[in-house]
From TrEMBL:
Name this polypeptide is given: Receptor-like protein EIX2
Entry membrane topology: Single-pass type I membrane protein
Organism from which the protein derives: Coffea arabica (Arabian coffee)
Principal location class: membrane
Domain of life: Eukaryota
Start-end of Low complexity biased regions: 65-74
Residue span(s) of domain Disease resistance R13L4/SHOC-2-like LRR: 541-744
Gene designation per UniProt: LOC113738851
Amino acid sequence: MDSSQVFGGAEECHSSESGWTMYIGSPVQGEEDDDIDPSGYDAHGEFDGLAEENHKANHHDANSDDSMASDASSGPSHREQPWKAGRGITEYYKGHDANVDGKHCSSHKSKKAGVKKNRHEKKNKEKDEAEVAAKGVKHFTQGSKAQSEAIDKVLHLKFAGLSAFSNAILPASLVFQHVLYPPESVIQTILKDLKDISSGWRKLEKSSVNTNLCSDLGLPTQLFDGKLCFEILEIATATFLLPILTLILVLNACERRQMQVSSMASDSLQYFLFLVLISQAINPWIKQGFCTENSRDRCNEIERKSLLQFKESLSDPSGRLSSWTGESCCKWKGVTCDIKTGHVVKLNLRNPFPQTFDPTPESFDGNGMVYELSGKVSPALVNLQHLSYFDLSMNNFQGTQIPGFLGSVTRLKYLNLSGASFAGKIPSSIGNLSGLHYLDLNSYTDEPVKNDIQWLSGLSSLRYLDLGGLDLSRASSHWLRTINMLASLSELHLSQCQLLNLPNSLPFINITSLSALDLSRNNFNSTMPNWLFNLSSLTDLDLSSNYGIRGQLSRNLGNLCKLRALNLNSNNIFGTLTEVIDGLSECTNSSMETLDLTFNQLSGNIPNSLGFLKNLRSLRLRNNSFTGSIPDTIGNLSSLEQLYLSYNQMSGAIPESLGKLVSLVYLDLHENSWEGVITEAHLVNMSRLTEISIGKLSENISVVFNISPDWIPPFKLKFVQIQSCQLGPKFPTWLKNQDQLKNLIINFARISDSIPEWFLRLGLHLDELDLAYNNLSGMPPNSLQFNLGSNVDLSSNSFKGPLPLWSSNLTTLYLRNNSFSGPIPRDIGMVLPLLTDLDISRNSLTGGIPLSIGNMTSLTTLVISNNRLSGDIPDFWSNIPDLYILDMSNNSLTGRIPTSIGSLSFVKFLILSGNNLSGKLPSSLRNCTSTFSLDLGDNQLSGRLPAWIGKDMPSLLILRLRNNSLTGNIPSSICALSSLHILDLSENSLSGIIPTCLGNLSGFKAGLKTEDTEPYEGRLQVVAKGRVLVYQSTLYLVNSIDLSSNKFRGNIPAELTSLFRLGTLNLSMNGLTGPIPETIGRLERIETLDLSMNKLTGRIPQSMAALTFLNHLNLSHNNLSGRIPTGNQFQTLTDPSIYEGNIALCGDPLPTKCENSGTKPYPGGNVDEDENEEDDLEKLWFFLVVGLGYFLGFWGVCASLILKKSWGDAYFNFLLGLKDRIFDLAFAKWRKA
């Protein structure tokens, strides 16, 4: 094996402020490298493939004989491509620039033609060098005591690059196996020594060892001094020359342990190894004058000045470019130079601490903005004509356009501007970069400028493309044809590009190498395209969040046997899952690992064939309409880590085979209708389980946990959500060893116990504790500990004692509907300053409202209703500007409403009803312009009903001012509340007429959309169906107008009957007069109609019989007369009290019967047959008389005038004369006036 085969030559020298890095096998400007696959770049501009190799090497078990044997057995692959290990080392060092001090160096890879041409010369030179080196080898192999001590020092040096060692050991093990065959104990000893190394050869340079290092190691001092020797060893450790050094150390270790290694083989091998070491490491320095102290500083002057101009155009608040000073630009951070020419070939200025766009809190780094570069990209970069790698990603260029001059840097192979806040139109000059392999322009935000992609056709070498977030709507008709021209493409990411159009077919498929396709968030409205099924190399497919991809899943999708990840969530896919799962299961070795079909309309059972997807790791089927139970074959999925089946219609028993999922980490089965019993068998093998969610938030319990109180689970849970499953009556003891819990949610579990002492001894630091809707009793322990931002909900239990406060880390505290007593702690606002939600309603709390609540500046919900609180309302509301819900109802609060409540400009629900508040409504309330519900009822408020309510509160849905002492008219501005659907002004002293404009309240004419139901919170009392009803969850369905018990007069406005969605209309106990409007039958949704205790007259309109929803009617104590309509809905209204107090009414259900001369019944009512026949005869005579009169009157006069001309002339002359006399008379009177 010759040295060129082993080492492949060095390629590139990178000197930066952070240390040496060898780039073996990486692309060099001016030469093509077909071995590099830019599709392997990860998001940071690193090679995923190399990272994977490095990762595997890092997990090499140095202490395992078997692992060493496997490494050796894999020798041929390493012998054929040994540069891969060095390439992995490269990526390791490249990713740790910020942590390693030193300099990076490598040598250029010799081309095959050059190797052949100079082979003879090399042999002669190697022979000469061998003669010189032989002396060093001889000294090295003597094994003196001084040499052994030096070797021990080297072996136990701690230096960075442990993964580099691991990578390098792989090809070294090849030689172990095929050349040395040392005893296994020696191999284990050496590998253990190497694993102890962690800090770096740079530390060696600062020690006293380096002075005589070469002589101590037996290297020939005639050729180089101690420092140069150190640098050779430094290169050896930074590249795959390390195995050579490792073998030398092995031989010395063998000698130290008196191993019987052939002296001849040892000398020959060391001679060969040392020859390779010298020829590969020393010759490039001597011949090229490179990597000496002077040559390292070499830098192209034009490029150095260009970099400085580029720096000047940037804003660098964190000083990331502070090293960009002096003459040696190749040492500058982020700059990489070519080893031979000194030209800049790489600029990596990616933000090392980027702001993440992952919404999860743990992935957010708030410090990322500090490290962002901004400003402008200087055109001086055009001078970097050898630049092949340019990364400005995750910085902030504040909407500036991508510079068009980048298209002139023609040697670019890697361009990453993602997340850098560039905007505007993409310059078409980017299409000139025909050698570009990797292009990432993902904006991570919605880009308003519309772009086309025709310029892509020039990127013939492109293998990775990400244009996510760009508006490509201009290309919606041809984007697929353009992409199809990129034959080398292996990864395509076009997420959130507004492509809109997903063609169903293609004339031919040119992108057959495509392995990853992301077309998510494009609002496609089509079926799954057929051409997808021909992409046989596809491993990752993401069509999620398009919402319009419809139809059934094709069995052809199952033919993509290489598919590892399929994401179709948030679409409109229906049908069953059987076909596609059956197709995937027929693959010889299905690669499917992730299947995400959440938020679709899939139905039917989950097929048994699911069990054949043995590699499946994540199954997400949430929010569909699946039925049936979980198939028993689920137990075959031994690799499954995530199982999400929540929010379906599944039922039946949970199979015990679920317990075979030994790799399961996340189990989510909640919001289904499970039945049966869960035992230890369901959970006993789930040693990796960390999250479990099962049940349905409902009072109905159909699942029972039958687990022994002595059972110790094998898992350590962090998240538990069990709802509507019987765990009680005792607190579940199988939680005793769950000392890693962060979230504990147990609702409707029928636990009638107290919180046990052992739960407190777990020492938990919780993020969420929700034990609501049980029957827990006693006093909640004060020793519970919570993390920052935690939530506590102990509502609807039987806890008692004073109000507990716990940690200042709490953000939400729900203690409603318990038996807590005593005052609200005076220091509650100081102990819990971070609270956003506080609900302590429905307890027995007394005393006043503490002033310290004003310190809770983040509060959004404050509910203290239904207690025994007294005193005035404090005036601290301007300190809580973000309050969303304020409910202090049903206490004994007194005094006036403080004006500072008007500073709550964001309050949606203002509920102060059921107190003893007095005075006028403060005008400052008009500032609450976002209010949905204003409930000030059942107080002692006085004054006129303010007109500003209708003008300044346009969003009002509920206006409840009942049972106060308000006076005056209803202002017409109330009619402008177009969203109002509950209006209750009853039991006041309002007067005047009922405004006819109330018929314009459109909220009573249109139904609410689903999104309109979201803002409803709290409870509301509504008088309906003759009693007081309390609405909560269905409050959005209530449509009510109650103006009863006032002093209104005049008629009932007929305009009210246009409110056809009105459910309750109560106008009782007023002074209304006149008839009931005949059009009242238009109130087709009316359920409650109360017009009692007025002065209404006339008949009951016949149209009321058509009110089919009417179930409560009160017309008593008026002056109505005539027959009561019968038939239809009136057949159910049989209570005589409905009509009492109307002495002129007759008919059922009243005892007064109507006489024949009485008012005729409503057609369709029950009347005698004789009366029907009499009515029919009267109608016949009526029509005969009318017809005869018409004939005689018309023809008796008109015919005579027509037939007798003289009569006609006289008649018309008379009419003309009469007209003239009337005109003259009118004119004369006008002149006299």
